[in-house]
Amino acid sequence: MEHSKPSLRRARRWRRDAVELAAVFLSVTAADLVAKIVAHGPDGPAVLATSAVALVAVALLHTWWSPHAPPPTTLWRVHTAPLAHTPATLADHEITLLSLHPGTEELFLRTPRSLDPGTLATVLTTTGHTLRGTPTRIA
Question: CA-CA distances (angstroms) from residue 126 to 2, 30, 60, 93, 139?
């Protein structure tokens, strides 16, 4: 007997929810066990207090760092003909050459997220590359 697609989705969702709930219970149990072991040790309360202060310090550092973090980037795969003067000219456009595969003439590049495929293709052709297709966004 065949199952309808909605019932399969519900079954999969139910299984996923059960696994997530089991993971929550497991992590709470592990945290409780660690806290009990540490708290009943010789320097338990001091260790817990130091850990709490460290956690707050890291959270504050993360909050401060977020606006100062480098801008998000995009990864690209580009097929080119034999390479010209690559690294220096690409750096002028904030493009980082991550990897070069000479046998396939593939470039793996990191660019600012605002750069679209057409602009990237234009920059590459003006820097002396012959493209064999449009740049492909990887991530």
Answer: 58, 57, 44, 11, 24
Measure the CA–CA gap between 119 and 136, rounded to whole angstroms: 13
Partner residues linked to 75 by β-bridges: 110
**Residues facing residue 24 across a β-bridge:** none
Q: Contact, 82 vs 49, CB < 8 A? A: no
Residue ranges in the chain modelled with pLDDT below 50: 1
Residue with tokens 């492909």: 136
Match 């690559």 to its residue by tokens: 86
pTM of this structure:
0.47
SS3 135: coil
Residue 117, φ and ψ in degrees, nearest 5 = -60, -40
